[in-house]
Amino acid sequence: MTRRNFASRAAGPLLLGVPTLFLLALFVVPLASMVVLSFWRTENYHIVQDWNVGNYVTLATGGAYVTFLIRSLVMATVVSVVSVAVAWPVSYAIILYGGRYRLLFTLAFAVPFLTGEVLRVIALQGLLGPLGLINGVLMALGAAPLRFIMYTNVASAIGLVYLYLPIVVTVIYLSLLNFDARLIDAAKIFGASPLRAFFEVTWPLNLFGTLIGFALCFIPCLSATLAPRFLGGPNGTLYGMAMAQQFGESGTWALGAAMGVVLFLTSILAVLAIGMRVNLRRTGFTGFGRG
Amino acid sequence: MYITLDGVSRQYGSVWAIDRVTMGIARNEFVSLLGPSGSGKTTLLRIIAGLERPSQGRVLIDGVDVTELPPHKRGVAMVFQEFLLFPHRTVWENLAFPLRMLKLPAAEIEERVRWVVGILSLGGLEKRYPNQLSGGQQQRVALGRGLVGRPKALLLDEPLANLDRELRQEMEVEIRRHQTALGIPFIYVTHNQEEALSMSDRIAVVRRGRIEDFAARTEIYDRPKTAFIAQFVGRSNRFEGTADAGGNRLATRCGARLALPAPGLTPGSPALAFIKNEKLRLDAAGTGAASGPNRIACTVKDVILRGAYADYILAFGERELNASRPRSERSFLAGEPVLASFAPGDIDVFDEKGEQAA
Amino acid sequence: MRGRLAKATTRYALLATLALSYLFLYLPILHIGLAAFSKNANFPYPPRWTLDTFGRLFGNSLYQGAFLNSLVLGIGAGALSTLLAAAATLGLMRHAGRRTGLFLTLFVAPLFVAEVLVGIASLIFNGLFLELQGNLVSAILANAVHCFSYALLIMATQLYRYDWRLDDAAMVFGASPLRTFFEVTLPLIWPGLLGAFIVTFIMAFNNLEISFYLLGATPTLPSVAWGALRYGVKPELYALATAVNLVVVLGLGIMFVLMLTGKAAFGHRPERERAV
């Protein structure tokens, strides 16, 4: 075998194999170890390798955990729906009227996303907090401060929309960008009003992108730890926050691992539940090939 | 007229993409808008469709002023260059789309789709998605979607540009047949003169947003009204020269002398002449006078066989001439000296502004 | 005309949503930016300008150390994930064949697993099974997992239109695969590499949800900020957030210039001007 032959034959397995090994070692195996730990138990800050399902029993019967999970699911659903509902007109407006500045408009959305969660929460406290901008203005005008945006679930929701709206906008924008808008012309020519054309053509052909955007908002919201902790109030404990506590103050790692497994499964189920309802062909999806 | 454009103009910034176009199209006419890319022909079609608004002027369809009507209320249909089939819908659903928009009862939709599947031989493909079809099949579905709603007019925007040559010729025949059968006007945009010539009743030659001429296809081909049309339609030999004192002869820059059928040029003014390749007769050198008006002695440089006829590339001094002769005539070989000649009536002469001169 | 009125209404509604969204996103950023530069940090209207806050921030040795650690974390995770994503993208586009869907699913899977789960799972694996203490290296590795998927998406949109026949052409003319890579492939994909690196660097630099569980005792800017936040918002935190915002804007500015000059696309297709 010549050297060149060898090099080109080795290229494929190497290019695909190294990233695959990387993900297996640092992503799949850790997740698997979390599953293993969830079937052990923690005693006085020590892990006891004693196979049992006690952690799951605690989660199912502990009351508070079920409440947290339901609250998180509601929160994530509301935040994702709001984000998609805002992101659609926003991305549509950028595509329609952005012209040569489209790029600037979309990149401007990436700034808050890239600045990270902690600093965003700081900025949000600057907006919503008791000493923040909104209440500062209200008090300067002599009005009473708005209580519902201070340490409440509403504040958490606003914070989460703030954190994840950018990614939803980016995904829907990219979907619209790759959508052949002349299909709208075709629909109109054949008798569809602008509104009808939207629901016959634009919406179904961008549904896939919209669902990806939805999922990329829903999943991190479901496990949010920081925003509810600093923006939400006493009734604002979300599942992710409770889970993080098992690895911090309480030191109950095994229970935390079980919570992680539940969270993981819930996310997967949510994605599948959405995915199953979508007939990919019906979204104009033509495979992973290069078009 | 069934479709009327009345002084239609379209301005983009400071550019007039369409400049005061007025034309009328009869109820069962096949009209081509022929022009080079960027001439404004597609814009004109989109104005008729309602996808663009004219800056000035009116569009009338069947006696109704539709200038202000959005596309979905005009009742016309369109076949696009890129087909633009709905990728998320099957062939059947694509064909049913215009009928659903018309809110027809299900039974009638079924019947009409079946009819169009029949006339376009799409049987068996109804459940496929557009990306599972060949280019020719997609073209048929696009055409079917255009015909199924029995539109007031069918607008075709370079529908054959993405097909290969053989398929294109097949589709030309088919499109023309459907137009005749349905008796509705087809307005066909193309930059391909062969397509325009093969199907149209009348051809409108579009140039820089204006209609250069709108006439029967034979008229456009045989008696081009402007130098642009002579250059653009058919394949011709072009001569630049100066009119002599009588105004009925042309001394060309390359050294040939052309005798015109009638005086019409200003003496001493520059002029353009075109002679279609097939109007150039070829004889063996030595038969008759070697030089004189409308006779050019040259040498065969190359022969390109086209099947029923042959294209000759002839060397005349520095320049090349082209002649196209049937294979039934005597043929010549490369290197052979020949005498090219033509009748005065076969010369299309234009003055320096490109207007018809003789 | 009813149609035209509806059209105008739609237009203004869309533009108003756009404007309000920018207001929503940037109001807090501008507010804390002003606060960071003024003495009356709580309600800086009108601001009484000062640079003291930044002076205190930059003079604080805790923040200095944390900044350096964040820098190492960002560069490490950014470089690692960009390189791996470049390999994965090239592999996906050229060598995966029928298994493209399978590999793609694996490669983007981290996007669909919450960051905090990656952090916790890595903590469990490292601490329990490998018995490793948390440090910068483990944080870099875990961050790289999450960044990898983002880098892959950026590279993929960039390389989607890359004409692989160029590679074949180079090889036909006798270039070795390695030489082809450096002379043909790399010059064409470097904007994608740079874009992916900028984004992943910023993400890892600012990350807390993953890093928090893996850093051990090593402070980074987000973790120090988080620690401080528990005792209430202080003007230094505003200054810190503002400084990071400026850096992020700078990074995206570089990307914007790259894309504007046509050197990179990142999913943007300028030639499709008539979209929508």
UniProtKB/TrEMBL annotation, chain A:
SUPFAM superfamilies: MetI-like
InterPro entries assigned to the protein according to its UniProt record, in alphabetical order: MetI-like (IPR000515), MetI-like_sf (IPR035906)
Gene3D superfamilies (alphabetical): MetI-like (1.10.3720.10)
Subcellular location(s) of the protein: Cell membrane
Keyword entries, A-Z: Cell membrane, Membrane, Transmembrane, Transmembrane helix, Transport
Membrane topology: Multi-pass membrane protein
Main location: membrane
One GO BP: transmembrane transport
Keyword set includes Methyltransferase: no
Occurrences of domain ABC transmembrane type-1 (ranges): 69-274
Gene Ontology cellular-component terms listed: plasma membrane
Transmembrane segments: 21-41, 53-70, 77-97, 103-124, 131-151, 157-179, 205-231, 251-274
Recorded family membership: Belongs to the binding-protein-dependent transport system permease family. CysTW subfamily.
The name this protein goes by in its record: Putrescine ABC transporter permease
Organism: Ancylobacter defluvii
From TrEMBL, chain B:
Domain ABC transporter: 3-233
SMART domains in alphabetical order: AAA
InterPro entries according to UniProt: AAA+_ATPase (IPR003593), ABC_SmlMolc_Importer (IPR050093), ABC_transporter-like_ATP-bd (IPR003439), ABC_transporter-like_CS (IPR017871), Mo/tungstate-bd_C_term_dom (IPR008995), P-loop_NTPase (IPR027417), Transp-assoc_OB_typ2 (IPR013611)
Record's keyword terms, sorted: ATP-binding, Nucleotide-binding, Transport
Superkingdom of the source species: Bacteria
GO molecular function: ATP binding; ATP hydrolysis activity; transmembrane transporter activity
UniProt record, GO biological process: quaternary ammonium group transport
PROSITE patterns in the record: ABC_TRANSPORTER_1 (PS00211), ABC_TRANSPORTER_2 (PS50893)
Cross-referenced Pfam families: ABC_tran (PF00005), TOBE_2 (PF08402)
Cellular component, GO annotation: ATP-binding cassette (ABC) transporter complex
Family (UniProt): Belongs to the ABC transporter superfamily.
This protein's name: Spermidine/putrescine ABC transporter ATP-binding protein
Organism, scientific name: Ancylobacter defluvii
From TrEMBL, chain C:
CDD domains: TM_PBP2
Pfam families (alphabetical): BPD_transp_1
SUPFAM superfamilies: MetI-like
Subcellular location(s) of the protein: Cell membrane
InterPro entries given in the database record: Bact_Polyamine_Transport, MetI-like, MetI-like_sf
Lineage: Bacteria, Pseudomonadati, Pseudomonadota, Alphaproteobacteria, Hyphomicrobiales
Protein name per UniProt: ABC transmembrane type-1 domain-containing protein
Family: Belongs to the binding-protein-dependent transport system permease family. CysTW subfamily.
One GO CC annotation: plasma membrane
Annotated membrane topology: Multi-pass membrane protein
Protein species of origin: Ancylobacter defluvii
